Amino acid sequence: MQDIRVLVADDEIPARGELKYELATIPGVQIVGECKNGKEVLDFLNVHPNVDILFLDIEMPFMNGLECAKEIQRRDYPVKIVFATGYSQFAVQAFDLEAFDYILKPYDEKRIQRTIKRYADSLELRENHRSPLSPGEIINTSQRISLQTKDKTVMISPAQEIIIISTEKSDRSLFYTTSGIIESRMALRDAEQLLAPHGFFRTHKGYIVNLAMIQELESQDNGTLLLTMNYFPKEKVPVSRHYIKDFKNTLHIS
User: Fold this and answer.
1) Alpha-carbon distance 185 to 249, whole Å?
2) Which of 200, 197, 223, 220 is closest to 210 using CA atoms?
3) CB atoms within 10 A of CB 232
4) Are strands 138-140 and 145-148 parallel, antiparallel or unpaired?
5) Cβ contacts of 127 within 8 Å, gap of 6 or more
6) Whether pLDDT at 31 is above 70
7) Is 202 within 8 Å of 217 (Cβ atoms)?
8) What is the mean pLDDT of the chain?
9) For residue 27, what is the enclosing H or E element?
10) Of 10, 21, 190, 250, which is most buried, counting CB atoms within 10 Å of its CB?
């Protein structure tokens, strides 16, 4: 497999230097350039459109990361965007822009390595499957699952990275992950069947949860429960009457 070509964009020199240092320690990664704002990113991609991954800061002058990502999307550049920022509140906007990943500062060596490996795994998956994956299809791998969204394949370890799966429409689901929210055109019942062996439980007609990610259980007057989950404490997950008995038995709750 050829080297993974990476572009780094951050307006702060120390942050760029730290990220380049971490990336340079990963075999098979080639840093092809660095930029200090979104405008420089677009100028670079206009000349070098074959960049594989763009590590993109959000808070930058002249053109911030979100504005830059929208323009990249409009111009249909094939680069995968990894938002690398100190601001967790932009996660939903980032994944609305079909970001490949979302990394918080300060940088963690293992987290960056995982992003690169996820990209390499997605390349290998495409090479090994001659027929294209349909949107929302999930394929089991040895330790991971590959989640196909509108136009990308995301490789994740379900037990470690998926917190909640929810749905508002029958033909798509939202995967709340440690890296942000990913929308997939997949029915919740298909996710339930796939993820049950990985420690997931259907708590409601619209929710599946990772049992290992439950932070708190709150009893309700009607005999049901509300769950507080790691990473998304404001997203209260209900356990409905239909599922409450099996849920309590699974967690050995009297």
Assistant:
1) 31
2) 200
3) 17
4) antiparallel
5) none
6) yes
7) no
8) 84
9) none
10) 10
